[in-house]
Amino acid sequence: MTPTEVRALAQLPESEQLEFKEELRPRPHSRIARLLAGFANADGGTLLVGVRDNGSFAGVRDVRQTQEILQAANSSIAPPVDLEVELIDIDGKNIIAVRINKDNHSHTVDNVTVRRIGDRILVTPVPPLQLEVAIVGQDTKGAAVLKALLEQRPSIRTVEMYGRERTHEFFEALTKDRFNCVFIDPFTFGVDSSIQLITRTRSDFPIVAFCLFSRAEQLSNLPGLDEPWRTRLEHYYRIPKDSSLDALDALLDHTIYLLSEYIQTAIATTKLSRLRTVLKSENAATLSNETKTKIEEATDAAEKALRHRILPADRAAIIPSFESSSFEKLLCGTIEQTSKSFRLSTTVNIAVLVFGAVMILGSAIVAAFSERWQLLLFGGFGMAGMVASLITNPLRTIGATARKLVQVQVAYFAFLKQLHMLSQESDGISTPEKSKQLGDEMARTLSALEEYLGDK
Questions:
Q1: Packing angle, helices 29-41 and 65-75, rounded to 10
Q2: Quick one: pLDDT at residue 321?
Q3: β-strand 93-100 against 45-49: which pairing, if any?
Q4: With bands split at pLDDT 50, 70 and 90, how would you rate the model's confidence at 312?
Q5: Residue percentage of the chain with pLDDT more than 90
Q6: How crowded is residue 177: how many other Cβ atoms within 10 Å of its Cβ?
Q7: Which CATH number applies to 127-320?
Q8: Can you tell me the distance from the alpha carbon of 206 to that of 201, in angstroms, rounded to the nearest whole number?
Q9: Residue 71's closest CA among 114, 31, 99, 125?
Q10: Which residues pair with 78 in a beta bridge?
Q11: pLDDT band at 391, cuts 50/70/90?
Q12: Is pLDDT above 60 for 152?
């Protein structure tokens, strides 16, 4: 990479494929490794060390950081990433340029999967077991997208698709243990058919995990279901298929881990139940009462621990992700259109007031000089216009209230985003530090909006 190329990159904002670091903390290596793996698991990218967030050049104090980067790439990432590290002189300052190439592997660091979404790094633990997935539904396009995303992951062993006409094949495959996880779209497959499929599967194959895969609005409202089934499905894992590909990608990592943990817990619970049954059978007659008691106590403790591990579905998954730029564009566009409408209304009101006053004054003058008092009727029309204008004048107040409502919505969505981000691990940043950063970001957003709104 040439100095000219580095200067050009430094003029760009940080993104999914570009990050600046004024300096790197060499220890632990996992901090550096997560940065590199995050790029490799996305579309590749460039890391510039010795460059401030604003794009100015600070330079690195210790050029041995190049060796730290190479060591982290080779020892802390599995499998190692493909990268190039260069030391480049910019105005007498050493800049480390790291180019990370995309490959077909899923890279992990310390048994966690690292993904880069925008300029953020999301960390998800590697699932404890591999999933064999069945996708059930009539939306072949949505199922194909989900299948493609799942097959990219090493934690997914197989993916099969089943429509309503293949229900018989679904249960045949289930009896042959060909899958342990079902992604189902109950609103294309049919609510009644879905209830029958879930009921039978849960009864005969309790370790199989379910995840609802449908549009966000349907996942939120669960239309066509009676109250008992609404309550039951409230606890199911869920993925909104109308989210962006980046959002689906991030949600899948998290949901796959939860589904994997659920299956592992269900398997352990089933084995403990069988152990309890054996203890009560004739096969345990040779065991002493003391031994039986100890085994039962251990079984009770294990079952209690497992019950605490089975967590309800992550409801944050049904909140679509918001990219800052898209959200800001949407809000500013809405505000601009609203402001234009109210400015137009204000202009019309002023015009009506002026025209009404001219009609009243003009008719009074003409009537006085000509002594034709019936001309005052024209003044009546002007008075009516002024009254109408006074009635509609509260539009300005309504407009101000609407703008403040938008600010409240901004605060609410920023709060949701903050909750979601706080549930994710981050690259060497503690939760209080991350919370402060997010709070500052929200304050800046609100301040910018308030300045933008002004007295429009």
A1: 70
A2: 42
A3: antiparallel
A4: very low
A5: 20
A6: 11
A7: 3.40.50.2300
A8: 7
A9: 31
A10: 108
A11: low
A12: yes
The DSSP bridge pattern shows strands 181-184 and 131-136 to be parallel
Query: In a 10 Å sphere around its CB, with 0-12 CB exposed, 13-18 middle and 19+ buried, how is residue 160 labelled?
Result: middle
Q: Which two tokens stand for residue 175?
A: 């009896």
DSSP tag of 81: P
- Please provide residue 16's backbone torsions phi and psi, each rounded to the nearest 5 degrees: -65, -25
- Higher pLDDT residue, 350 or 385? 350
Q: Where are the domains of the chain?
A: 3-122, 127-320, 324-453
Handedness of CA 3, 5, 8, 12 (dihedral sign): negative
At 91, list the tokens: 């105005």
Calpha distance 307→263 (Å, rounded): 13
Q: If residue 238 lies in a helix (H) or strand (E), which one and from where to where?
A: strand 237-240
Give the span between the Cα atoms of 25 and 323, in whole angstroms.
29
Distance CA 398, CA 241 (A): 37
Of 284 and 222, the structure prediction assigns the larger pLDDT to 222
Helix (H, G, I), strand (E, B) or coil at 26: coil
DSSP states of 394-428: THHHHHHHHHHHHHHHHHHHHHHHHHHHHTSB-SS
pLDDT at 264 over 60: yes
Cα–Cα dist 408/204, whole Å: 49
**Cβ atoms of 60 and 50 closer than 8 Å:** yes
CATH number of 3-122: 3.30.950.30
Q: Give residue 405's pLDDT.
A: 60
Topology alike, domains 3-122 and 127-320: no
- 6-29 as b/e: b if 16+ CB within 10 A: beebbeeeeebbbbbbeebebeeb
This model's pTM is above 0.90: no
Task: Count each helix (H run) and each strand (E run) in the chain, helices first.
Answer: 15, 13
Reported as a single tens digit per residue, the pLDDT across 24-48 is 775 556 778 888 888 888 888 999 9
Beta strands in 107-148 (DSSP E): 108-109, 112-117, 120-125, 131-136
Q: What is the DSSP letter of 369?
A: H
Of the listed ranges 19-23, 57-61, 66-70, 303-307, the least confidently predicted one is 303-307
